[in-house]
Specification:
heterodimer, A: alpha/beta, Rossmann fold, Alpha-Beta Plaits, six-stranded mixed beta sheet, four-stranded antiparallel beta sheet, globular, B: mainly alpha, two-stranded parallel sheet, 81% helix
């Protein structure tokens, strides 16, 4: 696998606020990444520094092996439409797409037309009069039809209804299968994108706290479902992160990968194993990281 | 280079902003002015009448300069355009449209002079002092003025976006103070006569050159600011 983006020691400070704290990671070619984290964790800051829209306080960023800032050779292979993207005064979606066609060498007009149709986007209405969902659709269409080698989607589903979101996920996967590329999707609807993303990058308070294959993350924990007494016996001594009960049936989420022996024991007691929601795992990881940071901050205060 | 030219196309993709609205502003101002002149003439006012309505589209250029930075610049970043490409393309667009505006002013002025001021002895484009050295110099004067208005708006917006409201306000206050200081100095030295005398002898060409020079200096000096501006 080749890395298309390499970040090392990236730090971004806004006045007193440390938005990114010595972040290092790399992004591999032709892979779909989920850039996950809470609001204000630093997701948009990372994406805007990678695309040279914003500036690092310190640290280095290499995209296709080069510094992206003022580098047309690199930038023309990237596409990043912000969640709060501004458009020219009085511009309509039609103007935006015509312009995108000028700048993105792989622009696919047919795909753009089809998406306009599917999202039922009014092409000639001024962008400032569009609803939040229609505004998101403009960004999504540019991101998909540009077919840039690295495409960033910044919370692309804001205001989109369930049908529109599904269209986005479906078209992204379809087009990705035909034209492999690197996609970095920032999201806090973790479960909704979990089937889409191959790798997970979790940002919390300006730090990367998880960078793994989605499947590996999923294997970190399991849901044990079955008779409450049997479930309780099995989970005794294990780390339980979630518990739901209905009558005599319980579903308990435990940390740690299951061994073969575990699985034999589970089937012997008639218990079922179901996959854990990625969201739960990440929420837990984020809470842990937050807890330890808070603790160390308290410690340093004393 | 082609990407810089594409920035021009991006700026002009919505022709409403750069072409039709300024033309409408201009045509509207002209029609209203001629109507007023006609009314004055029918009222028996015979002398030559002059209108300042031609400056209307110039102010619009300043607004377009502001919007180029506050709206189109962030969009250009999403289009993966470098700041240098954006800057060159935007200045080129401003030059192109300023040239068009100047050409319209010259044609308007020529018509005006040929028809004795639209038949009502009124002058909208062909103001005597600006036209003293002929239509070409007048055209250059209008071009330089439009460029200056555009670049001033564009630079002001860049300062606002890069450094915030306080720095922009401070800059404007300092500029105003410098201006007042200059005026005070002129009065103190009893040099107002010399000052206006210089303008009278230098003619419109010199003033146009001066405006073009200020616009050029601003356009160059603002680039380092734009280079560090975040959309």
């Amino acid at each position: 696998m080749t890395a298309v983006i390499e970040v090392s020691g990236l730090t971004k400070r806004y006045g007193d606020t440390l938005a990114l704290d010595d972040v290092s990671f790399s992004i591999e070619k032709d892979t779909i990444y989920g850039l996950l984290g809470r609001n204000g964790a630093g997701k948009t800051t990372i994406m805007s520094i990678l695309t040279a829209q914003n500036f690092a306080t310190s640290g280095s960023v290499r995209v296709f092996g080069e510094e992206p800032y003022e580098n047309a050779r690199v930038l023309s292979r990237l596409c990043f439409v912000r969640e709060s993207q501004k458009y020219p005064e009085d511009a309509s979606p039609l103007h935006a797409f015509r312009t995108a066609r000028l700048f993105f060498p792989n622009w696919d007009q047919e795909l753009a037309d089809r998406l306009v149709d599917e999202f039922q986007l009014p092409l000639k209405r001024p962008i400032k009069k569009l609803s939040r969902g229609q505004l998101s659709a403009v960004g999504v269409i540019i991101g998909l039809a540009a077919r840039a080698e690295i495409t960033f989607f910044d919370e692309p589903y804001l205001g989109l209804d369930a049908v529109a979101r599904q269209i986005f996920y479906d078209r992204l996967l379809e087009d990705y299968a035909e034209h492999p590329r690197t996609v970095i999707l920032s999201s806090h609807l973790i479960d909704e994108v979990s089937n889409l993303i191959e790798k997970v990058l979790v940002v919390d308070r300006g730090r990367i706290i998880m960078a793994e294959d989605t499947d590996a993350v999923r294997d970190r924990a399991a849901n044990i479902v079955g008779d409450t007494a049997a479930v309780d016996a099995f989970v005794a001594g294990r780390t339980v992160i979630h518990r739901e009960s209905l009558g005599r049936v319980s579903s308990v989420t435990v940390m740690g990968a299951l061994t073969d022996e575990d699985r034999r024991e589970l089937s012997a007691h008639g218990l079922d194993v179901t996959p854990v929601s990625l969201q739960q795992l990440i929420v837990r990881a984020t809470q842990n990281a937050t807890g330890s940071t808070a603790a160390s901050e308290e410690g340093s205060l004393r | 280079m082609s990407r810089t030219l594409n920035v021009v196309r991006m700026q002009l993709v919505n022709r409403q902003t750069y072409v039709w609205v300024p033309l409408m502003v201009l045509a509207g101002a002209l029609v209203i002015t001629i109507a007023i002149w006609a009314a004055l003439s029918s009222g028996g006012l015979e002398g030559a009448k002059y209108g300042g309505g031609a400056q209307a589209p110039l102010w619009y250029f300043a607004i377009v300069g502001v919007q180029a930075l506050t709206r189109t610049f962030p969009f250009s970043q999403a289009m993966s355009v470098t700041r240098r490409e954006f800057h060159l393309g935007t200045i080129l667009t401003a030059a192109l449209t300023s040239f068009l505006l100047a050409a319209i002013f010259v044609v308007g002025g020529v018509i005006e002079r040929a028809t004795d001021g639209w038949g009502v002895n009124g002058y909208f484009f062909a103001l005597d002092w600006i036209w003293a050295d002929g239509p070409l110099v007048a055209g250059f004067f209008y071009f330089a003025m439009a460029m200056l208005f555009f670049v001033a708006g564009y630079t002001g917006a860049a300062i606002l976006k890069r450094y915030g409201n306080i720095v922009l306000t401070a800059t404007l206050i300092v500029l105003a103070l410098l201006l007042i200081g200059g005026m005070w100095l002129l009065g103190r030295l009893d040099a107002w006569g010399t000052f206006f005398g210089w303008f009278a002898t230098a003619g419109p060409g010199m003033l146009a050159l001066l405006m073009a020079a200020v616009a050029a200096v601003l356009a160059v000096a603002m680039f380092p600011v734009l280079r560090r501006t975040v959309p």
